[in-house]
């Protein structure tokens, strides 16, 4: 694109857009004229025809005209100006709670008006509150609009009218200049309109374009743009991966005795799948470029030991390792595991979370900076600015799905100053269906551990109504008498941790009372980390029979003797999350059970979802079903989709579009490399900064 590209001009260059409006528009991510063109309507209003007042129905927004036959300011209650218009077929009241003296002078008997608003039913008949209105001066006045009227997403202080006017100008400036980067063959194949047509259809649709199709995403114009946006997101990850191939990374090597020593000290033999993934990783780490690899493996498939082996590669080559987990509980478990596995290597391991005492923190930071510690394990506190490594060679991130794409990219910058980037290994137990992986993980290579350690039996899952709670409690008694342990998981709407903890406390009290011979303890998210740790340790050492918990135990806890789990209100959680929870049992050689204690009545979908869990123990199958039943937003977690900031695409609505993103991306990368950056810039704009490093 050339220097005088009008579309890249700041919005301030448009008539009616001052500095203040420009600043406010920035909150919507709008800086350039082109950004305005891609700011699409939320919905539309139909002002293309005038409706006779007699035909009006409540709850519909319509255009009417009429002559004022009555106007008065009512002081009763809230002072308001009421104006009644009639068009010969009937009459309707207009109600203004705020009005100026000038309005009061204009809105008098005999004045002809056109009004647009939603019709409401009031005690005195139909009315419109604060309609958009215009005074009709002469007979020739044009009242209707030629197109459906767009309603744009707004930000505080910017009026719809201002935005409409600015976008109209932006369109006429930009349309001749915009390049359609999608190949013509693709447009033909999917019956997509070209870029100009698509934008015009969405900003100024003819009344022939059905409003419902526009609003529910069936319009080819919207599909085309949503597709382009998804493509741009995918491309940005692909390019980021390509770019990272040009970075330098430490080359790891390990001698055979060290390798053997580590493996021989493990209390088990690696599964074939673990060995295969280790081979993939070892190959990556021998290259001069950073590994960016994701391990997908169901809960309990043994990802941790694979990551520990990778850490060994780094240590043996003289580099430090950072292991990041999403929760303290999980970080603590990694600390225990790594400490055990590296016991005979004299490697100093430091632990870093947000809750450390200042002195402990200082010591840990010093050890990392001086290089006397080889491994740092912690939560995201590991990656705060003041944490400096002497020679960081490997970053391990567990339960990746909890960290967003952006955080991952930010981490990649650690060590950038030295010109050497660490290798990166990320692990997730939430298998992501291939279609979504394209938007999440296209910057990574993927390894799959598709085999559980030997001797594991699938967990038997039963779906039971909460009315049978007492019966279930009795079953626990029987269970713990046999020397086995159990979990009781209380769930609640995720946002309210306080309520969730209270519910868990109440349940713990109930169970303690009902089961006098069972040792009951409670662990929840609001407890101090040391307290949680103590309870978990006690549970692990079988000083506790029944652990009542909130969903904090979702990840990480590993107690093979606990082979029964009761989950209350499972209908509130996503399938993948339930599957994760359930993965806490079935870790030993005993047959294990999971009881889903639901609150009736269950909706059709909820029934269906719980049945999926009952019938399958395969995380991949469950993730696919979760996608089908709840949509990708739920599956990826709001945090993540929130971070993706789609302008147009809606993953729930546009899932089907994802199918072709990858092949179209391949095509563009091969045949139109000049299209890549402009497409990314168009859709991701400033947020691509991470991709530019
Ligand atoms: P996840 O993949 O869910 O992180 P973990 O790494 O926590 O799984 O492993 C689950 C349990 O299985 C741990 O107790 C771990 O020590 C054990 N484990 C891992 N690999 C094997 C194996 N090859 N044989 C037997 N047990 C294993
Ligand atoms: Mg794990």
Can you give keywords for this protein?
single chain, about 700 residues, alpha/beta, OB fold (Dihydrolipoamide Acetyltransferase, E2P), Rossmann fold, 4 domains, seven-stranded parallel β-sheet, 25 helices, globular, disordered C terminus, binds adenosine-5'-diphosphate, binds magnesium ion
Give the topology.
Elements: H1 19-26, H2 33-37, E1 43-45, E2 61-74, E3 80-86, E4 91-96, H3 101-106, E5 112-118, E6 120-122, E7 125-129, E8 132-135, E9 149-151, H4 160-174, H5 184-190, H6 195-203, H7 211-215, H8 220-244, H9 256-265, H10 272-285, E10 292-297, H11 303-316, E11 320-324, H12 328-341, E12 349-352, H13 358-370, E13 375-378, E14 392-397, H14 405-412, E15 423-428, H15 434-440, E16 445-449, E17 460-465, H16 469-481, E18 485-489, H17 497-514, E19 520-523, H18 529-540, E20 546-549, E21 562-568, H19 575-582, E22 593-598, H20 604-615, H21 619-630, H22 632-636, H23 638-644, H24 661-671, H25 676-684
Parallel strand pairs: 4-7, 10-15, 10-16, 11-13, 11-14, 12-13, 14-15, 17-22, 18-20, 18-21, 19-20, 21-22
Antiparallel strand pairs: 1-9, 2-3, 2-5, 3-4, 5-8, 6-7
Helix pairs in contact: 6-8, 8-24, 8-25, 10-11, 19-21, 20-21
The structure holds adenosine-5'-diphosphate and magnesium ion.
Report what the structure shows.
The protein has 693 residues and is of the alpha/beta class. It folds into four domains: 6-44 and 151-218, no CATH class; 49-144, Nucleic acid-binding proteins (OB fold (Dihydrolipoamide Acetyltransferase, E2P)), CATH 2.40.50.140; 256-449, Rossmann fold, CATH 3.40.50.300; 460-616, P-loop containing nucleotide triphosphate hydrolases (Rossmann fold, 3-Layer(aba) Sandwich), CATH 3.40.50. Helices cover 39% and strands 17% of the residues. α8 (220-244) crosses α24 (661-671) and α10 packs parallel to α11.
């Amino acid at each position: 694109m050339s220097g005088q590209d009008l579309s890249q001009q700041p919005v301030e260059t448009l008539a009616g857009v001052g500095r203040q409006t420009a600043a406010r528009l920035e909150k919507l991510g709008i800086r350039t004229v082109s950004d305005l063109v891609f700011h699409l309507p939320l919905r539309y209003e139909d002002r293309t025809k005038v409706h006779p007042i007699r035909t009006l129905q409540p709850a519909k927004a319509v255009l009417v005209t009429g002559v004022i036959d009555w106007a008065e300011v009512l002081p009763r209650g809230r002072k308001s100006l009421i104006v009644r218009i009639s068009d010969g077929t009937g009459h309707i009241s207009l109600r203004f709670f705020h009005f100026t003296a000038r309005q009061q002078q204009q809105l008098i008997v005999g004045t002809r008006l056109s009004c647009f608003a939603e019709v409401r039913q009031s005690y005195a008949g139909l009315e419109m509150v604060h309609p958009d209105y215009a005074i009709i001066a002469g007979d020739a006045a044009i009242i209707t609009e030629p197109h459906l009227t767009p309603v744009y997403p707004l930000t505080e202080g910017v009026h719809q009218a201002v935005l409409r006017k600015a976008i109209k100008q932006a369109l006429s400036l930009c349309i001749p200049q915009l390049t359609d980067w999608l190949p013509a063959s693709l447009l033909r194949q999917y019956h997509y309109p070209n870029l100009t047509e698509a934008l015009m259809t969405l900003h100024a649709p003819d009344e022939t374009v059905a409003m419902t199709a526009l609003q529910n995403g069936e319009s080819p114009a919207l599909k085309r743009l949503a597709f382009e946006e998804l493509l741009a997101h995918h491309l940005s990850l692909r390019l980021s991966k390509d770019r990272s191939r040009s970075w330098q990374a430490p080359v790891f090597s390990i001698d055979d005795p060290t390798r053997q020593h580590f493996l021989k000290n493990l209390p088990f033999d690696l599964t074939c799948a673990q060995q295969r993934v280790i081979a993939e990783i070892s190959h990556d780490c021998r290259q001069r470029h950073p590994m960016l690899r994701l391990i997908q493996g169901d809960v309990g498939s043994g990802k941790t030991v694979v990551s520990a082996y990778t850490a060994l590669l780094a240590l043996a080559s003289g580099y430090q390792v950072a292991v990041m987990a999403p929760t303290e509980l999980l970080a603590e478990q990694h600390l225990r595991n790594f400490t055990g596995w590296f016991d005979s290597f004299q490697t100093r391991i430091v632990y870093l979370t947000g809750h450390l005492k200042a002195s402990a923190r200082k010591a840990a930071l010093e050890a990392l900076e001086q290089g006397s510690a080889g491994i740092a394990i912690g939560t995201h506190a590991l990656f705060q600015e003041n944490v400096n490594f002497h020679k960081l060679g490997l970053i391990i991130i567990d339960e990746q799905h909890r960290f967003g794409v952006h955080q991952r990219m930010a981490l990649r910058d650690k060590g950038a100053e030295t010109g050497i980037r660490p290798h990166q290994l990320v692990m997730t137990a939430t298998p992501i269906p291939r279609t979504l992986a394209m938007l999440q993980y296209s910057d990574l290579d993927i390894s799959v551990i598709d085999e559980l350690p030997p001797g594991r039996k699938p967990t038997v899952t039963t779906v039971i109504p909460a009315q049978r709670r007492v019966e279930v409690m009795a079953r626990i008694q029987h269970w713990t008498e046999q020397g086995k342990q159990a979990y009781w998981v209380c769930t609640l709407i995720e946002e309210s941790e306080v309520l969730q903890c209270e519910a868990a406390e109440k349940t713990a009290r109930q169970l303690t009372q009902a089961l006098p011979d069972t040792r009951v303890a409670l662990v929840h998210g609001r407890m101090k980390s040391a307290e949680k740790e103590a309870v978990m340790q006690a549970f692990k050492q079988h000083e506790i029979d029944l652990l009542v918990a909130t969903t904090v135990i979702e990840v990480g806890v590993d107690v093979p003797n606990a082979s029964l789990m009761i989950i209350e209100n499972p209908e509130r959680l996503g399938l993948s999350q339930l599957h994760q929870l359930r993965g806490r049992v079935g870790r030993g050689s005993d047959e294990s059970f999971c009881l889903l204690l639901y609150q009736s009545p269950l909706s059709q979908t909820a029934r269906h979802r719980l049945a999926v869990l009952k019938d399958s123990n395969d995380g991949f199958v469950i993730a696919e079903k979760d996608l089908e039943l709840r949509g990708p937003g739920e599956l990826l977690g709001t945090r993540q989709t929130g971070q993706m900031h789609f302008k147009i695409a809606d993953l729930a609505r546009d899932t089907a579009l994802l199918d072709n993103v990858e092949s179209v991306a391949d095509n563009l990368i091969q045949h139109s490399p000049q299209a890549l950056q402009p497409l990314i810039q168009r859709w991701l704009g400033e947020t691509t900064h991470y991709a530019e490093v």
